[in-house]
Structure formats: structure tokens, C-alpha cells
Amino acid sequence: MEHVVLDTDLSMGAPGSEIDDGFALALALADPEVSLDLVTTVNGNTDVETVTALTLDLLHRLGHPDVPVHRGASRPLLRPQAVSGRVPEGVEVRAPREGHGAVAMVEHVRAHPGEVTLVAIGPLTNVALAVRLDPEFAGRLKRLVVMGGRFLGGTHDAAVPGEWNVWNDPEAAHVVLTSGIAAEWVGLDVTEQVRLDLDTARRMTAREEPFLRFAGRYTEGWIEHGRSEGGDGLSCALHDPLAVAAVTRPGLLTWRDAHVAVETGDTLRGVVLADFLTAPGTTLAANARVAVAVDAEGFTRRFLDLLGAG
Fold first, then answer.
1. Active-site residue identified among 3, 70, 100, 239
2. Which three-class secondary structure state does DSSP give residue 30?
């Protein structure tokens, strides 16, 4: 059994917002090989108060209101972003557990050294704070899986040159990369290859199961939102669920050891550079494992089967 802490900027349930983080939470709960010990929330897709409210609401929808949720960082480490949100009408605002998310991470990992896999699917602010709070935090983790970065290409977007999670707080990513733990990075190179198509979303919406009906409706909305921004309007990527799947099925991905650095300046803010250590005489050491290929069909089959949406 894999004991997991999920750090998330969940926004499923807010009209026009990403839905893959909600599917990641559902997948962590549905996987019989995962024990979801703790959820921490972080500013990212929306403000942390809205993230926390939506996370608690979704846990109730999924029938797991007992999972502890701690609200975490409300802004990046050094450069506050003007992220704002609003709890949608009809969502009951429930109180999270006492204590900051980063502190909850530290305390849980300290109590269970070598047993906890931390899956970070939002900006890495909470993780960086935990590393700074406890110098032994990284070493006590069993694994750290990060959904973030693009390692084999660029975003081709001058406004957001790095992948969103890393761009949002590259200083936090730098702290993680220099923490001493070789995190497993699941980036856009592979996540953009795993898709949920519109027909499947519509079938979900028509199902009787409350979560599938709810998730299908918001997935349809997210795909339509993508169309308005130049997408094909036929599917959306399942970025965050792929990182969760990597916990129990790492073989779905092809990994390469790398030395990864992140740009914290202005022009290339959030861009990651992966050196795969193939140059003769290199003195760099690996500080990450990077996913470079994915069995998209195998992932989709497992994802739909575990959620009962096949």
C-alpha cells in the first residue's frame, strides 16, 4: 500500500476551470493500492481559499469527507501573483483542519519516515516551505512525484514561458530541485499525450453516479473553454491524474535521469533545463527523474476502469 499526501490547486467545480486536478483526487481515492493520508491545498489555478473549498466539496461528493485537508500557501515564495477566485454558488464552505499545509506535511512525514509518497500537482510552494521548515523532510520522503515542467521542448508563449505550475513559483521549484531528493517529474511532454475526449465526457454526464455526472459536466465545459482559446474542442489533457497513476504504475512511463535547473529570471521565468548527462566528461549529477514517454492507451484504460467510467 502506497501512503500518499496530495498537494493540489484543485479547481474542478468552478465554471470554466481545469478539471484534471479533480480527476487526480478521484483517482487517488479509487486506486486500491493507494491510501490517501492527507490533502494540502495551494494557490495556483485559483486562490487557496477557493481551492480548499472545492477540495472539501469534492471529497464529500466522492464519499470521503474523513480525508484530512489543510490549507497551505496563499501566494508564491517571492513574487505574489494576482490570483483571485470565487467559491461557486451552491458549494458549501467547510472548514479545513487546523494548521498550515506545509506544517501538516512535515509532521506527517516526520511521523512516518520512509513511508510517504508526496504527489505535488500544483505550484511547489508548500513543498518548498516544508523543505525549509525541516532540513530532513526531503530525506524522510519515500518518493516525490511532481506534475510540472516541460523538458523536451518549450511552451512557445512569451507571457508564460514555463509550464504553469513551475512558472507560478520557480523559486519553489529551485528549492525542491536542490533539496537532495531526486523527484520524479511528470511534465507536459507526456501529460499532453493522455486525453479525455468529448464523447467520453458526455457519456459521464449521462451516468447516474453523482461524481461521474458532475465531472462529465465540468469536463464538457473545460473542453469548450479550450475551443475558445484555440483548441480543437474535442478533448482535454489529463495532466494531474498521470502523476497520480505514476505512484502505483511507474511502468506506464519511460524515465530518464537528468540534472534539472529552473530559470527564475524574467524573460525565461519557469523554464526548466534538463541535462540528460550524456555529454562526455560531464560533472553534473542527477537530481531528478524525468518522464520522456508514456503508454497513453494503458493509462487511459486504467483511469477509466478505476473510476468506473469505461
1. 239
2. helix
